[in-house]
TrEMBL record:
UniProt organism field: Halomarina halobia
Official protein name in the record: Enoyl-CoA hydratase/isomerase family protein
Gene3D superfamilies: 2-enoyl-CoA Hydratase, Chain A, domain 1 (3.90.226.10), Lyase 2-enoyl-coa Hydratase, Chain A, domain 2 (1.10.12.10)
Lineage, highest ranks first: Archaea, Methanobacteriati, Methanobacteriota, Stenosarchaea group, Halobacteria
Cited Pfam families: ECH_1 (PF00378)
Origin superkingdom: Archaea
């Protein structure tokens, strides 16, 4: 349900924009088991055709400081880590497969799993009070949450290895330069800009925009023949949408199209 209530997120749904603000029951907006389950539920909600844009952001000056490390000290740590990563990864797969554009609003520390979620978005807005940090080496762990998938794709393999080896904080301006973020904005202008971007995306042809993001992401894992075949399939399928028909009508009539996200 788009209007469901959660323990770790405060959500709003307005004008096609589903916004999920992290309010974790763990300190520093840390990821916990319930939060991963709720993120999966939110990802499933994106299949509702009324949703035209998804925004994930933090609260109280923190985006997400990674997993709740206080829960990692059990004797069955390997089993618990496998379970936790699997829950998170189910959510990531659903987010990756959605045909709704995803915006990440990084308004504070994005570390560990928060780093993964922070760089995942199709559009990543970073406040000038934010920073990104791979984080996992700090507890002797490897990356999860698709961090090792997206990081070399957005920053390049050489920079990805530097970021993970040195485990240094990356400020918002450097994050933009490296491709971790799309743009940075002053903290006191962050929410206004986040809403502006989300509103603009939500006014567009949702299916076409979402499928284009998928094509771009998956292009790095395909040869040209497979990519062109995927482009053929997507453009043919998208031609069945009402937004495509509206776009063609509007072009012929010399007016601005009024897309409905269908």
């Amino acid at each position: 349900m788009v209007n469901a209530s959660y323990e770790n997120f405060e959500t709003t749904f307005e004008d096609g924009v589903l916004r999920a603000e992290i309010h974790s029951t763990s300190k520093m907006n840390a990821l916990n088991e319930t939060m991963s389950e709720e993120l999966l539920d939110l990802a499933v909600c994106l299949h509702d055709e009324s949703v035209r844009c998804f925004v994930l952001t933090g609260s109280d000056g923190v985006f997400c400081a990674g997993g709740d490390v206080t829960t990692f000290a059990s004797e069955d740590a390997p089993g618990e880590m496998r379970k936790g990563a699997s829950l998170l990864h189910d959510a990531i797969v659903q987010l990756h497969q959605t045909e709704v554009p995803v915006i990440a609003g990084v308004n504070g520390a994005a570390v560990g799993a928060g780093f993964s979620l922070g760089i995942f978005g199709d559009f990543v807005l970073a406040s000038d009070a934010s920073y990104f940090q791979f984080g996992y080496p700090g507890i002797g762990a490897t990356g999860d949450g698709a961090s090792t998938y997206f990081l070399p794709r957005v920053a390049g393999l050489r920079q990805a290895k530097r970021i993970t080896l040195l485990n240094e904080r990356v400020g918002p301006e450097e994050a933009v330069d490296l491709g971790l973020a799309t743009e940075t904005v002053a903290d006191d202008e962050f929410d206004e800009r986040l809403r502006e971007v989300a509103a603009r995306v939500a006014e567009g042809p949702t299916v076409a925009l979402g499928r284009t993001q998928q094509l771009l992401t998956e292009s790095t894992s395909r040869g040209i023949e497979a990519q062109l075949a995927a482009e053929t399939d997507k453009i043919a399928e998208t031609a069945k949408t009402e937004d495509f028909r509206e776009g063609v009508r509007a072009f012929g009539e010399g007016r601005t199209p009024e897309f409905e996200g269908r």
